[in-house]
Amino acid sequence: MNSKKHKHRHAGKPSRDIISASKVFDLLNLPQGIVFLDAGCGDGYFSLEASLRLGREAFLALRNSFY
After folding, report:
1. Which residues does 32 contact at the CB level (< 8 Å), separation at least 6?
2. Residue 20's closest CA among 46, 40, 39, 38?
3. Single pTM value for the model
4. In this structure, how many other beta carbons lie within 10 angstroms of the beta carbon of residue 42?
5. How confident is the model at residue 66 (pLDDT cuts 50, 70, 90)?
6. Calpha distance 19→38 (Å, rounded)
7. Beta bridge pairs of residue 39
8. Is the dihedral of CA 22, 25, 31, 33 positive or negative?
């Protein structure tokens, strides 16, 4: 087992600096009643927009590291 503490490292700019979550969801035009999965959600930038558009019960956000 690796005893070194995991350190989160960013590979580049965050999504919010590159693209508008609102514009992405406008283009996706997701129907109500679906379940949205944001795997590797990071800070939840897209998950927050999904919850606003689809409702809190319609999405699941997962990440594999702790800050």
Report:
1. 54, 58
2. 46
3. 0.68
4. 17
5. low
6. 16
7. 62
8. negative
